[in-house]
Amino acid sequence: MAPGDREVEENKMIVPENLEEMLSTLPKEKSWGAGGCFYKYQGFWYSSVWLLGTIWAQQCFKARETDFLLASSPKSGTTWMKALMIAIVNRKHHGSLSSSSHPLLIKNPHNCVPFLEVRDQEHMIGSNPITYLDSLPAASPRLLSTHIPYSSLPKSVLAGRIVYIARNPKDVFVSFWKFSEQFASKNNQKPQESPSISMEEAFELFCNGVSTNGPFWDHVLGYWKASTERPDEVLFVKYEDMKRDTMHHVKKLAEFMGHPFSSEEEREGVLQEVIELCSFENLSNLEVNKNGTFQVHVASQTGQNQLQVDNSAFFRRGEVGDSKNHLTPEMLERLDKITQEKLGTFGLEL
Ligand code: A3P
């Protein structure tokens, strides 16, 4: 079999042959922040790219007990948490956190911690996106990430440990809206692929649960409930808490990951160094994050396509409450009300 033929074979294994047919049977909505439209699958909305990746992961991904999975709704602080997890786990291998070979100084955090459902340039082997994850050595824990809702996770994932980062939906909405503008211009999306949509229209969709991997509130709730039922395996963290008391939450994260900071490390300032290395100011000013590009391979029935986004798009303001500068008081109030209605009864405030 010629190598090209094998690629086609691999694609056949992982891309449902009747993808178009399958998509045509799913509920559909106008999308914002992604090309094409959103499809509802297992109760959540996806662009076709993320949906396909989710189905791949459900069918092919084999978790290991030693895995650490970072889960999040997009724009909730995924990049920051990836950086912290890498810095915590790697702090003993790199002599000094400021050593020029430290992965975070030369790579974007998304190139250090791969997603389950899409593959970036550095983590692609052949055309099967799962091959890279399977090739990682069994001896060291894998750091992985996902936007897949808890109820749709590949079943084997439930054997490993999960960290979830949640953020206030007002800031999530604004962050995603700004990100999607950059994404569309970078990928030259044609008007028919990415119909122009006003922020007000996108807001209406978001409030009605239509957003990437939304409904936002159901996404958060799935992981929140899991964290209350299985606290040793699922750690639930809020972006706002991380900003307010970074030291406390980074220590907690390190303990959860089985890499607690010793008193000696704390005395020597290692904890502070980790926090500074992963700070918005530091990461956003690194050459790789100012001028690099994050390229993602996505599979379709016709083979691999590439999407890209500037690494700088993952670092915008990094603040709590920026939504006040972009949304009207009525919009802010409406989101607060929905959040209270959906999450309040479960004892969760965002
Ligand atoms: P803003 O758009 O509000 O600035 P994600 O990583 O899930 O895509 O989320 C992106 C959001 O996290 C953006 O929010 C981004 O600026 C912020 N962010 C990225 N790196 C950060 C860091 N090191 N510390 C705090 N916030 C960070």
UniProtKB/TrEMBL annotation:
User: Which is an annotated GO molecular function term of this record?
Assistant: sulfotransferase activity
Q: Give any Pfam family that matches.
A: Sulfotransfer_1
- SUPFAM superfamilies this protein is in? P-loop containing nucleoside triphosphate hydrolases
Report the residue ranges that make up the Sulfotransferase domain in this protein: 66-346
| Keyword vocabulary terms for this entry | Transferase
What is the superkingdom listed in this entry's lineage? Answer: Eukaryota
Coiled-coil residue spans: none
Annotated EC: 2.8.2.-
* PANTHER family for this protein: SULFOTRANSFERASE SULT
Family of this protein: Belongs to the sulfotransferase 1 family.
The name of this protein is Sulfotransferase
